[in-house]
From TrEMBL:
Protein name, as recorded: DUF1488 domain-containing protein
Phylogenetic classification of the source organism: Bacteria, Pseudomonadati, Pseudomonadota, Alphaproteobacteria, Hyphomicrobiales
Organism: Flavimaribacter sediminis
Pfam families recorded: DUF1488
Length: 88
């Protein structure tokens, strides 16, 4: 099946300084986390919740592409996207 993102909801995970979102592989839900570091340049400091969510919303297409690529490497129920997932 193809991974799809029919639900546009996302939330900030303060503990992990990351944004959570979900995809669906047929009837199976797949959880994703994208680390704040992957969401933008921030001079080494932590991004705020607002910064993370804004960066997520503005990069949604590339995030979904990276999520599909990461999921295809090994179908898991949780995939964590890191900055390296967006390089070259």
């Amino acid at each position: 099946m193809t991974l799809a993102f029919p639900n546009s909801s996302r939330s900030y995970d303060r503990t992990r300084n990351a944004v959570r979102f979900v995809g669906h592989d047929g009837m199976f839900e797949v959880a994703f986390l994208i680390e704040a570091e992957a969401l933008g340049k921030h001079g080494g400091g932590l991004l705020s919740e607002t910064d993370c969510l804004t960066a997520f919303d503005s990069s949604l297409a590339s995030i979904h592409r990276a999520a599909c690529k990461a999921y295809s490497r090994g179908r898991k129920t949780l995939c964590i996207l890191k900055a390296v997932d967006f390089r070259g």
